What we know:
The chain is mostly beta strands. It has 21 helices and 83 strands. Helix 18 runs antiparallel to helix 19 (1208-1218).
Amino acid sequence: MKKTKKALASLAIAGMTLTTIPFNAFANGTVPTRLAGLTAEDTAVQIADQTGYTDKAILASSTSYGMVDALTAGPLAASLKAPILLTGAGNTLNAATKAELTKLAVKTVYVTSGTAVIKQGVIDELKGMGIEVIALGGYDRAETSVNIAKQMTGVTKVAIANGIPDALSIASVAAANNEPILLTNKDALPASVANYLASAGITSSDIIGGTGIISDAVKAALPNATRHAGMTAYDTNNQVIQDFASSLEFDNVYVANGATGIDALAGAPLAAQTKSAVVLTDGKTVPAAAAFTYSKSSASTVVTALGGTAVVPENVRQGVAEGNVTSVPGELAIVSVSALDDSNRFLEIDFSKAVNTLQPSDIVVENADTLERYGVKSVQMSPNGLTATVELYAASDSDIVLQYLQDYNITVNANGTILKTTFNRSLSQKVRVQDINVGDNEIVAYADKTGDKLTLKVPTGMNFDYEGALGELVQVWYNADNELTNYSIVSTTAKSDAIEITKVNQIKLLSEDKKYDVSEEDYNNTSNQKFAFYLDGEKVNIADQLNKKFNFAKVGFDSAGDIEYVSAYSLKDVLIVNSVDGDEVVGVEGSGSFDASDATIVKDGKVVALDDLQKGDLLFYSDDADNKDGYAEVLNNKAATGEIDQVYENSIEVGGQTYNYDYDADAAADFDYSKEAVYINEDGEVADVDSDAAEQLQAAGEVSLYTDYAGNLIYISGDTALVDSNSKVAVLTKDILGYEAARDKVEIDALTQDDEEVSYDMELGDLDTITVDGTDYDINNDSGASSDWKASLIGTVGAYTGIRLTDNSDSTPTVGEGTQVDVSFSSEADAGSLVKLHLDDNGNLKELEFFSDANGLVGVGTIGSSNTIKAGDKYIDGKKLTANTVIFDATEDSANTNAEDYVVSAFGDYQGSEIDNGTYIYNDDAEVVAIWYDSTTSDDKSYDEALVTKVLRNTDGKIVSVTVYAGGELKTLAVDKVTADDIVKGQVVVLQFNEDNMNLVKGFARAGAGNDIDSNYSSRVFTGSVAQNGVDVGNKKVTVGSTTYKLADGGLVLNATDPSDISVKSLSDLRGKSNVTVVLDAKTGLYAKFFIYDTSTATTPTTPTTSVVTYEDTANKVVYVDNAPYVLGASTILKTAKGSIIAIGDAAIFTALDTSDEVSNIEVTNGVVTSLVATKIASVQTAAVTSLISSLDAAAMDPTDPTFNTGGEVAAARAAYDALTPAQKDFVTNYAKLTAAEAALS
């Protein structure tokens, strides 16, 4: 049997396209040497254009008194990818800023000041532009800095500043390192800042400025504080740049005026993009920091002034570019010492300020351990006095003078000042890098000659090109701790491609269609082969990979052109990047997500951060690669652009080239992709390309085709357009009639979704296919056929009852065993049944599709009084209603409605009464394709799921208002004085409304006997655990227990650990949560309105003396005690007060417990009950035993009594007691009387 996935066509298909505007769409490439405008606002606009940021912006005041509010906005700007724009003191938005907001399509603006600084008129103007305004202004500058910091995520370290220049000095560094800047007073840490540090869990801090700016008392109140300071604000700027040099790059350097400050503020996010330093000047002189930045610069370094020549004169900018520090009083220091040759005979010493002259006698070089001195032969000074080249005495030119990995003390007498530093020369080797571990900042390399393995640590601040070095010969320098100090990629011969292992000594690069030999060279003086093969991050034997193909590989070559190294990955999962949520890369809906918390991601030949991903990137990934850390590569390989010339059954033709969208068997076997070629459909979701989709793409115009290295078509980007589909949803207006002429024939009368009446009189054998519930049965009625299916009529002449499909390959076909399928003329093929007609280009019916299964992936459902449909509903029975769902209105005469009396419409246009009788058909995406109905009702009740955050009651104790999460937002609703004492914060309820007033709550469906209105609560609320791998963020799916739910449109994930502070979270936050409540968007189905979790750890709730079991929700394993829910688990223990076990596990406990039983001492761990004590339990029957013991009177225990029965009554009571379980014995209240009776007889 051939089974083919079928998509049911929508009524209409709207055009759409994936927005692929990169984040730097407006950036101009190389930054110019000056960014300036006529005003500060104009300059900010110039800077904003360079950032390339869109969508969001930060608005600050350009006034001198208002700028202080925005001092700390630089890190937030970098975090949000938002430029900082300015406006003045007036009541209207600056014109240049307004134009820039429009140009950058800004939707959200963060305002750093209150309306006393940035006027209300400006705020109103922003809102009038359709921009969301988020106010960050606080009571004072410190609180404002805290408000700004709270907008950032993943923060563990902060910078603390007081003065304006100090905050500007750290701005670009802090922005690049996701480090908020908080403002303090000199002698006391503001309460708002202290509270933030405690609540945010900050673990370390950087103090910017000396004790004259921020006292040691403040330092003592900060976590793990490090001070960065100089004598003046400009010295502090110099010190900050030097202290953070390892995390800076010097391809770009920015210069701003430290006195005016406003341009430096706007420039911080731009500088952060390239991890660049901002040098502050007083507007007259070149500061000492220029000497250091110059020493780190290259010939290609661009020095850019922020602001016009009035604030940064050109001679100052040029001086910073050349390192020509203005001779001003200040501290002279050694900036750096480096060796110029392999023997360490020539040293270069850089100074922070110009040195007049130096003699050999002014310089002392000594071994730091032995204090042995080395003679200085000569000293040469650079023209600007900032660099000294020192030659040491050596026995010969080749002798090593200073040893590698040894510390040496360098002392210089410069301008009468004694300067000291330490020098250490790193070791160096030529190696081939074979493995990279970005998460641990580590590389594994092998010496090119000896094959010695070398594992090197990469310092946190080093700009190391991991992917560029992989597979290449690299010269590395490292210290005694095997820490990399420098590197240079010697060869750049490696290639990225898809590969095939054709022989154990031969590999084919698929895009080149060329085979290369594997190197047979050994390391010097060994039999160890240089060639190495890695698969998914693990070293393997190439012989085990023979005849296999891998879609991603980095291939390194030796000098002879043979392959010496391969790092291959099998990346079978692909997503189209839509966004980044924390550490999760989220694909366009339908393409999945990738947990990148520990993963390596490569793009354009570089290891990149998540921030470097762009919307629309094609991300190929594997969660299991690199020892389950995960690995991904972005490949935006645009193979062709143009209109689709032809659409074929499994392929398309663009520009004369044919591309398969339905992979053939070879491609599927070679690369095992989890999907075939995809596109983004009219609903904005990723879907497989089929011929219908290809025709829609063709009709819309130009497309772009993206392939992998092997040429497999992965993604078609383009608009979709309405095409005249050959597939029509229809309703049968008469029962299908079967009759026999020469062959079995049928008459079909129907009305299509286009309101077109059609009629067919045809032989069953003329149909190519009959489809039933999504399964295709290809028809072959030829005599003797041994494949496909025979279509014939069921019954006798004049009384045919249906169509029978029989498997031609089975000699004994049987209904119900998959070899014989029946279609009934009185059921799925009768008048009023929904079908689908598939026509050829000439309008001939070639395929007939029926729907009969109510439980399959494709099938038919029934509409009734318990599952009605109202205008605006989103689901029925968990199946999604769309605007394009076709509606056939048969209220005229039910199934007997004539074709001309039907009303055909789309559900998106439906405004009629509630539909309470009919049928619907749905596709394998759980979407309702069409509805047929013949009855409506006037029921006026409506319900909405909610999580309560606040309850207000009047003096009579009746609820008059609730604040809830509902409909995707937090809202406050009026309540019609409902009495419900058990409604509290953090409780899940279902709100009841009258349809004519959705703003007044009429009742609350909730847990508990008598509280669940029409089963609206018990049918929607479920509880369970989520595994670490139970969340698919990209497809919005979460598996709770064994059931997979999908987050509905407008659905929320909520953290309700603290009912007083419920917060909105991400789907990824659900991973590993053990107490998750699922609130469905309807009484049936798998779409969730809420996922609510509680991360609280072990607690023992205080229970009243008498705690009564009020309700048992066995389906969700929840028992309600005094109306409070408790989740039971498989290991929950129910015991007596004396510790005897009554039952273990939720199922056994529900059997033992009943409503009105009493329990206490409920112990909960991670949201699940571990144990509880039953103090009164009906299922433990001990009354008979208690009665026997109670009847033991004095006569029964006295041998002299005439009625004495030799102690028989006592023995009987003992036997009955001993037959009890330990738990039952604990409930016998008069056991002491039994033991007393036995004692009297002894």
